[in-house]
Write a structure and sequence with these properties.
Length: about 475
C-alpha cells in the first residue's frame, strides 16, 4: 500500500474502451492508496467489439496490482463505458462479443427506429434522447436484423458495467445513469418503456433492475477476484456519470472531456429533451440530469493526423486559413455516421503545423458548439470549463479550447476521474452520504487555472461555414 489510510477503504473501477483501471481510495480523505490497470482489445475494421470476458480478466489483473489494499476494501463500484450491448445466453455467457459505443454499423437501424416511433421530437420528449447509432436499442435492432440466431439465443441484455456488477454480486442491477443511454429507459417516467421494448422484440424480464441512487446492488460473491467476500457493491454507473460524481459537479459547471471520444456535459436539475439529437438527455447517478454531447473523433483522430504529418502532437503553428474536419471514424456530433475527414482551404503556403492546428480546431469546434446546447439558459457564460481526459494534459489541446471558447479553463489535478467517481459512489453507499459531496470533500476538482483569452471568432466562423457547405460530401 502506498499511503496510510485514516478511514475505510473503497474500490473504484473504470472499465473503459481500452482498459480497466482500479483505485483503492480512503473513503474519508480521498487519498489513493493503490492503483492498477490492465488493457482491453477492441476489434479493428467496421465493427467495434470486445469480449466481455476480457473485462472480467482485466478487472482481476488490475485488482491484483493493488495488493493487500484491495483485499481490505469495504465497498466497491464499477463505472463503465456506456451503450455497449452485452447479449447473454441462458447460462449467463456472452452469445457474441459486445458491440461497443463507437460501433456505427447500427446507423440504418437508428434512423428506422426514430421514424417508426414518432420521429426525433417524440423520442426526445419520451426517452430524453434521440437514439443515435451508439444507443443500445439501435445495436439490439442491428443484431436482430443481421445475426438473428445470436438474438434468438439471447435471454439477457446488459450494459458493460451491469455485466461486471452481475459477475461480482450475482445480481442483475443497473442504475438510472447508465440505463438512460439504452434508448429503452424513458426519462419521462424513469422506467423501462414497454412499448419500445415490444417494438424491438425484447422483454423487460431480460433487463436488469434499475437501482435507486444510493442503493446497493449487492455484495461481493465472486471467488476469483482479490476482494473480500461480502464487501458492499454499489449500483455503479456509466463512465460519464461516474466522472461527474468524481468531480463533485454542481449544476451549471461545464465539463469538456478529451479522450478517445470527446464529451461536453453539465449537471442540470431540468430533464433535457433535445429534438435535434445533439444532446443526449442522460440521467446522472444521483437523481439529477446529465445533458451530454459526444464526438467520436477526438485525441486519436488528432494523433493520427500528427502521425500522417510526421510531427509531434504538440508541434502546431498558428496562422493560415486551412480548415480540417477530422471525422476519421464517422461522426456522432454532428450526426454524420458515414462521414470521413475533410480538408478545405489548402494553399502553397500552408504549413504542416497549421494543418495540425486545424485538426485540433475542428475537433474542439464540434465539442464547443454542442456545449451551448448542453448548458441551461441560466448557466454563467464565463463559468470556467473543467478540462479532463488524456488530452487535458496537452498544451495544444488546452490552448485550442481557450482560444475557441473564450472561457477560463481549470485542469483538475485528480487523474482517473471515472474510477474516482465510482470510488465516491462506493464511499457514499458505505458512509450514507451524497457521493458528489464526498468527492467535493476529497477536493477532486482542484487544479491548474488558465485565464480566459479573447475568442478566435474568425477561426470559428471559417469552420462553421465549411461544415455547413460540406453537407453533401459528409453525408455521402
Amino acid at each position: 500500500m502506498g499511503a496510510q489510510s485514516a478511514g475505510p477503504l473503497v474500490v473504484g473501477v473504470d472499465s473503459s474502451t481500452q482498459s480497466t483501471k482500479t483505485l483503492v481510495v480512503d473513503a474519508e480523505t480521498g487519498v489513493v492508496v493503490a492503483r492498477g490497470q490492465a488493457p482491453h482489445t477492441v476489434s479493428g475494421g467496421e465493427g467495434k467489439e470486445s469480449d466481455p470476458g476480457q473485462w472480467w480478466r482485466a478487472l482481476g489483473e488490475a485488482l491484483a496490482q493493488c495488493g493487500d489494499a484491495a483485499r481490505q476494501a469495504s465497498a466497491l463500484s464499477v463505472g463503465g463505458q456506456q451503450h455497449g450491448l452485452v447479449a447473454l445466453d441462458a447460462a449467463g455467457e456472452p452469445v457474441r462479443p459486445a458491440m461497443l459505443w463507437n460501433d456505427v454499423r447500427p446507423a440504418p437501424q437508428s434512423e428506422r427506429l426514430i421514424a417508426e416511433l414518432g420521429g426525433a421530437e417524440a423520442w426526445a420528449d419520451r426517452v430524453g434522447s434521440v437514439p443515435g447509432p451508439a444507443f443500445t436499442v439501435a445495436k439490439w435492432a442491428w443484431l436482430r436484423a443481421n445475426e438473428p440466431a445470436a438474438a434468438a439465443a439471447t435471454t439477457a441484455v446488459r450494459l458493460p458495467h451491469d455485466y461486471l456488477t452481475q459477475r461480482l454480486t450475482g445480481e442483475a442491477v443497473t442504475d438510472r445513469g447508465d440505463a438512460s443511454g439504452t434508448g429503452w429507459w424513458a426519462s419521462s417516467t424513469e422506467s423501462y418503456d414497454l412499448e419500445i421494448l415490444e417494438h424491438v422484440g425484447l422483454s423487460a424480464g431480460a433487463l436488469p433492475r434499475v437501482a435507486l441512487p444510493g442503493e446497493a446492488a449487492g455484495t461481493v460473491h465472486a471467488d476469483d477476484l482479490p476482494l473480500p467476500r461480502g464487501a458492499l457493491v454499489a449500483a455503479g454507473t456509466g463512465d460519464n456519470m461516474a466522472a461527474a460524481l468524481g468531480l463533485g459537479l454542481r449544476p451549471g459547471q461545464p465539463v469538456l472531456s478529451l479522450g478517445t471520444s470527446g464529451t461536453v456535459y453539465a449537471v442540470s436539475t431540468h430533464r433535457p429533451a433535445d429534438p435535434t439529437g445533439t444532446v443526449a438527455g442522460f440521467a446522472d447517478a444521483r437523481g439529477d440530469w446529465l445533458p451530454l454531447a459526444c464526438t467520436l473523433n477526438c485525441t486519436l483522430a488528432v494523433d493520427r493526423v500528427a502521425a500522417l504529418l510526421e510531427r509531434d502532437r504538440e508541434a502546431v503553428e498558428a496562422g493560415g486559413s486551412v480548415v480540417m474536419l477530422p471525422f476519421l471514424d464517422g461522426e456522432r456530433t454532428p450526426n454524420l455516421p458515414g462521414a470521413s475527414g475533410l480538408v478545405h482551404g489548402l494553399r502553397h503556403q500552408t504549413t504542416a503545423g497549421q494543418l495540425l492546428q486545424a485538426a485540433y480546431d475542428g475537433a474542439v469546434f464540434a465539442l464547443l458548439e454542442a456545449l451551448d446546447r448542453v448548458l441551461d439558459k441560466d448557466a454563467a457564460a464565463d463559468a470556467p470549463l473543467l478540462l479532463i481526459g488524456g488530452g487535458a494534459k496537452g498544451r495544444a489541446w488546452r490552448d485550442t479550447v481557450r482560444r475557441l471558447s473564450g472561457r477560463p479553463v481549470v485542469v483538475p489535478e485528480a487523474q482517473e476521474l471515472v474510477a474516482l467517481g465510482a470510488a465516491a459512489q462506493a464511499a457514499g453507499l458505505l458512509l450514507g452520504e451524497d457521493p458528489a459531496a464526498v468527492a467535493r470533500r476529497w477536493g477532486t476538482a482542484r487544479g491548474a487555472e488558465y485565464e480566459a483569452q479573447e475568442r478566435d471568432g474568425a477561426a470559428w466562423d471559417r469552420i462553421a461555414t465549411t461544415l455547413a457547405d460540406s453537407g453533401a460530401l459528409l453525408r455521402r
